[in-house]
Design a protein that fits this description.
about 450 residues; mainly beta; 8-stranded mixed beta sheet; about 0% helix
């Protein structure tokens, strides 16, 4: 409450002025037993009310004071009272010499396509809206603290900044800017569909999608992918339709035409000095070598494997966009995921398991059985006994580990398990593996 100057006039008409008084209390001589009978008085107190200017209070003639004038200070005006606050009958509009208080400046950070706003704790709970400026223009207002770069559907060089708004406060200064570049995504598809409908992607991110063929058609072995109008590196699985382009630095275009019939895939070849390395296609029984169009050699190279669910296991492994088979019991306490990998091979064959065990190191981890050995159907740690080829307990890392396994001739199998304990979810909280041939 603001103080006021008070003038008191006694019966003789003499005025006595008291400066900067916050409330008035009258004390009358006890021997006279005089009390106030008029005006807004409670126990000798006067409630200040400057809504009509100076406040006047009258009393009966037989009282000590018969007339009181309380002067309203010249600076006691609505503009000098906090907005929405009523003092002495006056409703405020601004605070402090005609100026609104100003909200503190937010900060923004970017992770991939997502930008997160941090509101300083000194702003308390007053902030009502976040104002998003795109290249200096107020483009969006929202109440949540995150937004996607791609949601603005703008291509090219873009700058983002954010300010804060609340009634009764001046808008905060804008945050520092985050500059991003976005690129267009184009599809030229013939009887092929894409799971990713995005039209834009932010620079340096990974573009990923799954292509599928229309009814009675097949995914082609080869597709064409360009970035910035030039051929680029990309990962393409012509069996599953998984496509990904890492570190995007230009417009992406994908051209794909469905096949009428399924074509067995071609083997991969590469020269190592004077030696030609041949990687047979996964389902091929024979691989033939031609020189100048004439068959000169035939290699019996049948090898295949399949990933199967294990009866009784609540959670399983599924192939992800990176070609890894990944446990799907992430953040499921006291659980396990399991799968069985069955191999069929003509002759003994060395293969590799590329594994990612990235979780709570000593409690959540993958386990791989020895050839033709099983693992327990529970989240129990199977340890390092004769039935265990590799136990990843204590070996948490985002870096893949390469394990070499010799597969015998004929049909054989291994079990793969991810054990999840009863607390804490760390990192990607899964076990992942893929099979690679020499």
């Amino acid at each position: 409450m603001r103080n006021a100057d008070i003038k008191l006039k006694n019966r003789k008409g003499e005025e006595v002025t008291y400066l900067e008084v916050s409330k008035v209390q009258f004390e009358t001589p006890t021997e006279d037993k005089v009390t106030f009978s008029y005006g807004d008085m409670v126990s000798g107190n006067i409630t200040l009310d400057f809504s009509q200017g100076n406040q006047e209070v009258s009393s009966a003639d037989n009282e000590l004071y018969n007339h009181v004038i309380i002067q309203k200070p010249s600076t006691f005006i609505p503009e000098n009272i906090a907005e929405g606050v009523e003092i002495a009958g006056l409703l405020g509009t601004f605070q402090g010499a005609g100026e609104k208080p100003k909200l503190r400046t937010p900060t923004i950070t970017r992770s991939g396509d997502l930008i997160t706003i941090t509101n300083p704790s000194t702003n308390g709970t007053y902030v009502e809206k976040y104002l998003i400026y795109v290249s200096g223009i107020l483009t969006k207002e929202q109440t949540t603290t995150t937004f996607s770069v791609a949601s603005f559907d703008l291509q090219g060089n873009i700058n983002f900044a954010v300010s804060l708004f609340a009634k009764g406060f001046e808008e905060s200064d804008k945050s520092t800017t985050i500059a991003v570049i976005t690129y267009a995504i184009h599809f030229v598809l013939d009887e092929i569909a894409s799971t990713n409908a995005a039209k834009l992607i932010t620079q340096n991110l990974t573009f990923a999608t799954v292509l599928s063929a229309s009814n009675n058609k097949f995914i082609p072995e080869d597709i064409e992918v360009t970035m910035g109008g030039q051929a680029c590196d990309y990962l393409w699985n012509s069996y599953t339709g998984d496509l990904s382009v890492s570190n995007v630095t230009g417009d992406i275009q994908v051209n794909a035409i469905a096949d009428d019939v399924f074509q067995i895939r071609r083997p991969k070849i590469a020269w190592n000095g004077d030696n030609l390395n041949v990687t047979p296609e996964r389902y091929a029984r024979f691989t033939k070598i031609y020189i100048n169009g004439i068959e000169v050699y035939e290699i019996e190279s049948f090898f295949e494997y399949k990933i199967e669910d294990v009866s009784g296991s609540t959670y399983v492994f599924r192939e992800n966009k990176d070609g890894y088979y990944e446990s799907n019991n992430k953040a499921k306490q006291n659980s396990y995921a399991m799968c069985k990998v069955t191999f069929s091979s003509i002759g003994e064959k060395d293969i590799y398991l590329r594994c990612i065990n990235y979780a709570e190191a000593n409690y959540d981890f993958g386990i791989i059985s020895n050839i033709n050995m099983t693992l327990s159907l529970s989240y129990t740690d199977d340890g390092t006994g004769s039935n265990v080829f590799k136990n990843f307990k204590g070996l948490s890392s985002a870096t893949p580990v390469l394990l070499k396994i010799t597969i015998p001739a004929g049909v054989s199998f291994i079990y793969v398990k991810y054990r999840k304990d009863g607390s804490v979810d760390s990192y990607n909280d899964t076990f992942q593996f893929k099979i690679e041939e020499e």
